[in-house]
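Researcher: Let's continue the batch. This sequence belongs to Peptide ABC transporter substrate-binding protein, and it's 503 residues. Same format as the previous ones, please.
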Amino acid sequence: MKRTAISCALALGTIMTSAFTPAYAGSGPIKVVLAEEADLLEPCMATRSNIGRIIMENVSETLTELDVRSNNGVMPRLAERWEQNADGSWRFHLRQGVKFSDGSGFDAKDVKHSFDRIMSDKNACESRRYFGGMKVTPSIVDDYTIDFKADPVQPILPLLMTLVTIVPEETPLEFIREPVGTGPYKLTNWTPGQQIVLSGRDDYWGTKPEVTQATYLFRADPAVRAAMVQAGEADLSPSISQLDATNPKTDFSYLDSETVYLRLDHNIAPLNDVRVRRALNLAIDRQAFLGTLVPESAVLATAIVPPTTLGWNKDVKVFPFDPDGAKKLLEQAKADGVKVDTPITVIARSANFPNVTEIMEAIQQQLQDVGFKVDLKFVEVAEHERYYSKPFAKDRGPQIVAAMHDNSKGDPSFSMFFKYASEGTQSGFSDPKVDDLIKRASAAVGDERANLWSELIAYLHDDVVADVLLFHMVGFARVSERLDFKPTIATNSMLQLSEIKIK
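Model: Same format as before. Here are the structure tokens for Peptide ABC transporter substrate-binding protein:
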């Protein structure tokens, strides 16, 4: 079946992201320098930022994608259109004439296998966590039509499908090393510790990007990354520090969907006492970080999702800096037999964001100033995941995990279940009211959905004191003058090469 003019226009609109294409546009290779190396290039792990910014929508595509550049909502990608059936399920009509990078054709069997693979217990796919609290069943209608039925009914299922990367039906359930996808690029070189190279595909179904090849380099120091772009050794660094963002011709700030926070494990004393969790929050001078180690335009956090998210609760207030109040709470807890002087380990991810070392050392000192005994431990991304996600080690002591959480999708459902539900893969506690609010909000629509999320945000912050929320971040990127590219809220987690134009 030939694509209609409307289908072609939709496909083109999905890929074109600049407001204009300069008359002097060209094509060629580029070099991108990142802070963290990818430990995997597994498609179902592309929701993790160090993997997604390389392969998401470059090598591995999804049925739908969220247009954050032009605010057009959920747009077609491998699905040309979709509608909700009378029973609440969703029907997706797939694009025809698409091939994977191995030459095999794309159809509904690949979509079903990709989803079943994500949900399989034979791997640890990160994108599975976004479907927690629901049962989703894919069923093939014909070669290019597939239904997804969710229980409870999911009104935002097309948005959830922006996280399901599509692989060939033949892909094993276990993790793979070299991704095979339908995207405009394929993996042509991966030399661990040195570089990853993606090369353009001549048989890509969509518009051919101007970037013909992308070489990814990895440098932990943000100053080094900025200097490499300035010296012409790289063309783009999507993350540099504010201190290095000194050239208005090449350096751009952008709204970041990342929230920096400390995940608390309520299961282990003394963190199982709410007074101790409040004391942790009161001990930190969040405001002092703004304009120093954290960009001045960053926003102090009261939720795990940024203020642009549905259900944002403006009435929830940031914990004040009150070291005396923190000391009193610890004294009260100690008088009741809580062992508040038990050493607590704070685990942070190396090179997770600019100034992470200095920020975490300052927080360690502030916690020690009010009486906490705190050890600080830095680990690489793969080891960090073992502390961050279940199953947690049974012999662990009290732990706090420093992390960043990305939610650029505009709805709390991409955060709340796996962060806070009793069965959530990164949840550090169990609370029946939290579970109920998440279940009801996920199935609701309109004002009811927003109100339930708002109620949950307040309850987590004020009553549960679920964690220590710190900052909604602002990112800074350095872009070579030979490129036409502006970062967006999604840049830190997904860097689509097709959005980059070459002068």
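Researcher: Any comment?
Model: The first helix runs from residue 5 to 15.
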